[in-house]
Amino acid sequence: MDYLHYRLKNWKPLEYMGMPEGQKRVARAYMRQEIRDREEEYRAIQKAAGGR
To answer: What is the pLDDT of residue 52?
Structure first.
């Protein structure tokens, strides 16, 4: 999950790794929601483009 924060949010790895566990839990929950949102958006684009 720390890699996704690095790639998608430009967080330095040590920023995420240095967080208390409670903050990491919240960050992971938000990242999972963002992934779901991106997947939903991708499916909507595919459908609009005549894909599956």
So the answer is: 64
- Could you give the C-alpha distances from 4 to 17, 18, 23, 41, 43, in angstroms and in order? 13, 16, 16, 18, 20
Q: CA-to-CA distance for 46 and 42, rounded, in angstroms?
A: 6
State the distance between the two ends of the chain, measured CA to CA, in whole angstroms: 29
The structure tokens listed for 11 are 């967080």
Quick: pLDDT tens for 2-51: 888 889 889 998 888 999 999 999 999 999 999 999 999 999 999 999 87
Backbone φ and ψ for 24, nearest 5 degrees, come out as -60, -40
